[in-house]
Amino acid sequence: MIGKIAVEEHFVSEATMAYLPPLGVTDAVQAHIDGGLVDVERHRLPEMDRNGIAMQLVSLTANGVQMEPDVARAVDLAKRANDELAERFLAKHPRRFACMATVALQDPAAAADELERAVKTLGFCGGLANGFSNLGDRNTGEYYDLPKFLPFWERVADLGTPFYLHPRAPLDSQQVIYEGHKELLGPAWAFGVETATHVLRLITSGLFDRFPNLQMVIGHLGEGLVPMMARAQRRFEYASFGKTLKKPLSQYLKDHFHISTSGNFHTPTLINVIAEMGADRVLFAVDYPYERSDEAAQWFDSCDIAEEDRRKIGRDNAVKLFSLAAS
Ligand code: GRE
Ligand code: ZN
């Protein structure tokens, strides 16, 4: 399929290179990833061209500003990363890239202002956070269901731009279950558990009852949530510990989330996600440069789904959701 739009594609800003998580890959693979994160014209655009990807939605890679425990420094890092993204991608190639703002939720008011600046002044199409934010020190983290984040979510809802919740690894103090298993700590497993749990925290906090037009995106074919939502709902109905929601728990995933294919190119899972969410809520993504665009594209272009759904997932849903100027 030509004209695809890939919605979870990454870059690294100059000042956030030190915030990349250890990947445990060979030096050659690491060099390929580092080069891919920095590059625009040499590798990225030709790789898009070769694989029918008309546009990337670009965001700052994990752990990004979320890992900076100093509030003022995090706020400054976010501004500079967004300016760099605007200059290096959007200004030079406005038809090939759309941008997701990074926000320093260490300061919710500043994060709201920066998102608004990015959307209104820089022309970005949404925001993205790499999981919880460290606050004060490397072993203190805050999840965005806490009441202090409500003004931020209010601004997101007012702006009407989607917000992408991207993974990061759990806090050091929460890693006991992965002891002796570094291989499970990153994208292989812990990223998904971390993000899925964060999503459930947002849902059961009542965030989406408060902001009925708030729209979120998650990657990796749903971070494991989709096949577990019915059970989560069932057990929440038996034991909600005093929490009340206006709708059945699983309905919030269907009404407030879009799910991308980033780094999970597996047809039975995609079919299940389409069945549960509807084809209108699924989006194509690669997860560049952690994943290869050719693998993603060859899989997506030929996987056994309806052609009408391929058009929606490959392009049309993203145009609609992110209000992209379709070219
Ligand atoms: C990803 O986006 O999938 C990713 C990161 C950082 C490290 C590994 C990884 O953002 O797969
Ligand atoms: Zn990613």
Automatic annotation (TrEMBL):
Record-annotated Amidohydrolase-related domain positions: 43-323
InterPro entries reported in the protein's UniProt record: ACMSD, Amidohydro-rel, Metal_Hydrolase
Cellular compartments per GO CC: cytosol
Keywords on record: Lyase
Signal peptide: none
GO molecular function: carboxy-lyase activity; hydrolase activity
GO BP terms: secondary metabolic process
Protein name, per record: 2,3-dihydroxybenzoate decarboxylase
Species in which this protein is naturally found: Roseiarcus fermentans
